[in-house]
Amino acid sequence: MARLAFASSPPLASARTLRRHFSIFAAADPKTSEMPRLHHASLEVIGGGTDRFLPPLKDSLSKPYDAFPLIGFNSHAETIYAAFYRSVPFVRLRRECLRTKDNGSVALDWVAGDDSCLPPESPILILLPGLTGGSQDSYVRHMLLRARSKKWRCVVFNSRGCGDSPVTTPQFYSASFLGDISEVIAHVGDRFPRANLYAAGWSLGGNILVNYLAQESHNCTLSAAVSLCNPFDLVIADEDFHKGFNNVYDKALSRSLRRIFSKHSLLFEDIGGGFNIPMAANADTVRDFDEGLTRVSFGFKTVDEYYSKSSSSKAIKHVRIPLLCIQAANDPIAPDRGIPRKDIKANPNCMLIVTPRGGHLGWVAGERAPNGAPWTDPVVMEFLQHVESCETINGDRLLEDVHQIQV
């Protein structure tokens, strides 16, 4: 189908948004009769969008979730093994530093060489790592490789100070701040106006992503998204963070936050206000860091208010694009009881997969275990490829059809 050119053609952002209304992913009635089981009994699969999203994943999800012996028996063993012993594939990256409207900076890492070997309409996957994470992390690198093997263009969004991203103002990022992700998605869309945009986020990156989807709601320019090991309810996550062995993760993450802060501490000298810079600089827990710096930076009176109002569990009901959430029932950092199952079941755009094991950012299972890609990677790509296949009709971009419908 040749594209018809009209002087009154709508802006690309509008066309991407309008596509939601003409998508063959028309929302099904979540009250329809239950489908025959297409997944293995070891997996929990629920959601208002299950009737549309589960069938394409049945080959992967019909197999039992078999955690790797010795490693997968314990959530902490799996979490730690994945963090320290999972392979980190070599990927040549090209960095682009993006200056934001408030004069802050984030770093976008693109796979080098993609501009010359991928067509401009190739689908784009934007990756959001977890707290203090970046393009150097193993789970990010494995996802990059899998998506790139499917001819997708990939870019890692390194938040302020993460992945050696520059910090140019006395502000980092938070679970509530959506300004940077909004600008990044708009920037990527402007660079590749003919491509469909997708995003996947892990842990805090997943929480930020789901909050963004809710904020944009019907106006979201992403075609679909994936959230992995999302803490969802940050109040519950904070409660569990201070229990037993979880203190090890709390101290490790606070140490990473202190390290990032120390590199840019001069920006915060004499900042005044309600900041407690010594507390942030010497934080022994993530909560201490958030009390001294984060909650003040983003206008919250208390840390508990920050956690409550930043929780993406309250955002699920407002998501209007296909969203796959993958969680592990034994995740020590993203507690199972924080998952907003009721809202996921009620939303025809959402599907949730809960594995019996997996730890946090672990999922040491599947054919690539124990040192290769997480069990989740092929499931994520099958979901995204299914959505992408439905975003094209007989090889023509659905975007073109939208232009014609609007005129």
Largest sheet: 9 strands, mixed
User: How is the CATH topology of the largest domain named?
Assistant: Rossmann fold
Question: What is the helix/strand order?
Answer: HEHHHEEHEHEHEHEHHHHHEHEHEEH
**Count of helical stretches:** 16
List unreliable stretches of 5+ residues: 1-11, 20-28, 393-407
The secondary structure category is alpha/beta
Number of domains: 2
Q: Let me know the CATH homologous superfamily of the largest domain.
A: Alpha/Beta hydrolase fold, catalytic domain
Overall radius of gyration: 21 Å
What does this structure look like?
The two termini are 16 Å apart. Helix content is 38%, strand content 14%. The chain has helices at residues 12-22, 50-53, 58-61, 75-85, 114-117, 138-149, 179-191, 204-216, 234-241, 246-263, 277-281, 286-297, 303-310, 341-346, 376-390, 398-406, and strands spanning 44-46, 93-99, 105-111, 124-128, 153-158, 197-202, 222-228, 323-328, 350-355, 392-393, 396-397. A nine-stranded mixed beta sheet has the order 1-9-8-7-6-4-5-3-2, with helices on both faces. A two-stranded antiparallel sheet has the order 10-11. It has two domains: 44-233 and 312-397, 3-Layer(aba) Sandwich (Rossmann fold); 234-310, no CATH class. It is globular and about 60 Å long. Strand 8 (323-328), helix 14 (341-346) and strand 9 (350-355) form a beta-alpha-beta unit. With 407 residues, the protein is an alpha/beta fold. Keywords: Hydrolase, Serine esterase. The active site is at residues 203, 331, 360. One of its GO terms (molecular function) is monoacylglycerol lipase activity.
